[in-house]
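Long-time lurker. I teach an intro course on protein structure, and each term I like to show students one example going from raw sequence to a predicted 3D structure in token notation. This year I'd like something fresh instead of my usual example. Would anyone be willing to generate the tokens for the chain below so I can use it in lecture? Attribution to the forum is fine with me.
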Amino acid sequence: MDDLLKLERNVRSIYARKLSLLASRYRFNLPVSDKDVPGSPRVLFLGNHSSGKSSFINYIAGADIQESGMAPTDDGFTLVTHGEEEETLDGQTLVSHPELDYQELASLGPEFLAKLCFKTYPSENLRQLTLIDSPGMIDSASSHQLRSYDFRECIRRFAESADLILFFFDPDKPGTTGEAISIFTKQLVGIDHKLLIVLNKVDLFDNIRDFARTYGTLCWNLSKTIPTKDTPRIYTTYLPGFATRPLEENAKPIPLEDFDISRDEVVSEIMRAPARRADNLVSGLLSHAHRLSVHVKVCLEAVLAYRRLVSRLWLGFTCILLLAAGTGWLARDWWFKSDWKVALNERNWDDLSEPGIALGIVIVLVAFFWWMLSFGLRNLRRSIETEEGIDVFFKRAYRDELSLKKRADLHATWESIKPGILDIMRAHGLRSLSASASSKKLLRKLDVAVEKEIPSLRCRIDPEQETASQPNTEEALESTDEQQLSTDQKND
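-- Reply from a regular --
Happy to contribute to a lecture. Here you go:
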């Protein structure tokens, strides 16, 4: 546990030094920050209603903490963890409790807090775990309209902070509902390495043929939903003594020995959540840093291109103004004399033609370049606010990597963050983004963290790799982190 706390301090330090300030300057929606790194290992339970989520939590805890049944029994989220006494807190009390680290959940809104519950129970299996029970998925394309809060955003927040995600299916609903499709294709994108898929209640099958049919149906549905080449492993489990309907008469139940092994594997993965915590901290930090780096580089490329064009247009406009000023200076003698007044009164157009033409040309040129300036800036903004336009800056920023095909994940990362960049461009404009020398320096530090500093943290996760000198190394790293953070704050 001490090693995990040291790792969390290092992760928080990198968030503070390398990510937070840069994300703020470029309006990047950082999922977590140096203040939001949860310390307690978390396991998130997802699935269709009556798929056995609450029953499995009760099985882990060894007590009937959650209500369970065939029909939907809960329309909110419940956090279950260890406590010396059995206690229940509502959502508002939870986020305002000074000793509990759940203040970040307040940003999900009062409607969500009204559906949030926190329970403690004196179970040894819960001592280092927080189990998160979720409402059952609804089979409706407009299911988000049936809830008083943003269900999908809540799932995303819990999934990002969770160390293990279990997605439950049961024999009655082996397909994916409308909400489940959205969760798989949007909310769980990029964090599917935490995901375990569970086909629960296999003891309800009358024969092995029904099991094979249901298993195949689930595999088929998942292949259409999860954007991966290979179908992920599906854990087939049941809970002894939790059968909810009797078998048909003369039916031969399927042998359950192998499913006992599978259930034990799922339980083992849940109990390994503290060990997963360390790896997920580093993986999440690396993913966020990589996404932020792409975001900043593309934004910086767009801002620099915008400023180059603005500079050229203003340079042209300035030249025209200087030309006009020079023309007026050369003709100063003519303007200060009364000859032009006499020519104007006598309507002697021949004497007025040359200076008039020169003055007209200057006025036309000034007006033309002013129009070009405004038109060019307007067109540039419009071009950037399109997917085709922003793709150009992405290709400019990563021309070397794209030409050499060194980054296979680059396109996938870009597609995931492109909508956010477009929203920033349309809502705030390019002038709201920084292109200062300090921002470029922060970007270089971020790239160093992605390439060297964050991978070095992963090497220290395995306790077997620790040496006697490692604590001194960690202390030195923490001291260096503090010095760099202080320096960056002074420079900025």
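Some talking points for your students: The two ends are 36 Å apart (CA to CA). Residues 293-491 form one domain.
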